[in-house]
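Sequence in, structure out.
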Amino acid sequence: GDIASTMNIDDENIASTNNDATFCKMMAINKGYYSDPFASHFFNERSFKGFSSTPIMNRGYYARVSAFRKLILRFLASSDENKQIINLGCGFDTCYWYLKSTGHHVSKFVEIDFAETISKKAKKIQETEELHSLIDNVSYRNGEVHGDDYHLIGADMRDFSKLETLLNMIGVSPNRPTLFLSECVLIYMSPEESDSIIHWCSNYFSSSMFLIYEQINPSDPFGQMMINNLRKRGISLLSFQTYPTIASQIERMQNCGYDLVLAKDMNAIYNNLLDLEENRRFLKKISGTHILEQTA
């Protein structure tokens, strides 16, 4: 049947931030900050002609992507059970292809977003050999993608009964270890809506982990600049003021059913989680580019 989700004007504005993330990641990749051979397939260079990124943005995306990859691999290495990953508000993320191309097995990798975003991603996958060739027994229907271990579905994450039905239809089990990914997604929802999603994840799945990246410190100069820039585009960070600190984010996750919560800001992630040798290689590799960027 038709499972398209309905978007209002606020949803459309939020969906447009997918283009921002795609652009920023491509800028960092093109300047050598990290490697992703799949991201360019989702990038329309003509749409961003004349735009550029800053060194601090590029370094931030390097740390962000590297941290997500490292923690995802830890989850997959934690036991031999069949693992599931559910990417909430996936946009044009390429994590599935990164894992598949590097030999890491996931029994189900599910990506969920607005139907309008999903249909664009599905079209790119269908017409790109490097993408669809990695999905076993791939099929396309209703603007979605389905394979043995990969599913790209359009749904409103706030409609839990419908979401449970869809996940059940594609063979996702609430009794398998499941990792949820949420990268700059829940902050656009009201605290009540975002908290209900986290609570559903912890409650519906018997064994789950939740990997979340959210903005903090709305009152500092960078936070104020970000709020103002998004406001000009009709976008509000609805949960920003409610969960402005690391401590409040930890309390939020605990209140929503996750007993063990670890949270760090990106400086701590860069200095403590990421491999020091990897960071040194990264800095050496891009040092010339970085200096040129700083002086450009």
